[in-house]
Amino acid sequence: MRRNQILWCSAAVAGVMMLVSLTAIGANKPDVWKHDFTDAAKEAKQAARPLLIHFGATWCPPCRQMEKDVLHHADVRDVLSRQFVAVMIDSDQHPDLISQFEIKSLPTDVIVAPDGVVVLKAEGGRDRKTYLAQLRHVLEQFAPQPETPSERVQDERIAQDSAAGTARVSEPSREPVREDKPATEVKLLVGLDRYSPVSLAKNRQWRKGKTDLALVYQGVVYLLCDAEEYREFQADPAKYAPRLLGCDPVVLWNSDRAIPGSTQFGAYFDGELFLFASPENRDRFKSSPTLYTRPQHVLRVDQVDGPRWR
Fold first, then answer.
1. Helix 74-83 and helix 128-141: axis angle, to 10°?
2. pTM for this structure?
């Protein structure tokens, strides 16, 4: 009997020692989540990585749920450690950051590009799948595009089936990528000459947006005027952004050249904003809008000549 007790005690001690050993290994592994905003922002800038700021609070149940099920999950930690600099902020301890990033609810995640532009603000509790999708969406904004030997627009023509109300995507024509040139980083375009797309769409007012209320959509930076506009644009950017990355559809149709339109010559068709390089092109568009809107070009930011963000 005593021998069995000794064996049981030895096994228990071995189990405790193994648990302590595993805990020590975990403690030595660096945490992907930092807690000093200044250090994290500095590291993100030096590494040219997006800075992810997670705002939470100890009294916030959705915050605790996200910490338990999402933020420390292996899949999330892997993406963060390789692609981001992540910092976790206790909102009660940092009212200055709450004010700076206009945090209205918890939890909220803010992602800031290396040049200081806020590219994502996501509010409320999210599951792991949604959280990872948001991270990947941001990373797509920074993915460099390969150069091609031609500056001609490579496009996909979408044939509209008006009877069925559906669209069919034809196979795009592709040109071989040059192997002797490395991929180059593409800087973001500035959209609408810094005017707010929401003010324009809702009130037909040309109001300059604010630099600290910037959002990126399809590689273009749009500035909003207030927090309400920011939320509206973030929820449905395609509703407000100009078509064709702001390029003149008449020039694009006639010559396959991606020439930015001017905010002086704009027109709405079927609730969508189009910009033109000249009043003559705008008049041509108005005389036969379906000619220029039926075939849709898929553009990349690097194919457009225009003002770049900073």
1. 20
2. 0.45
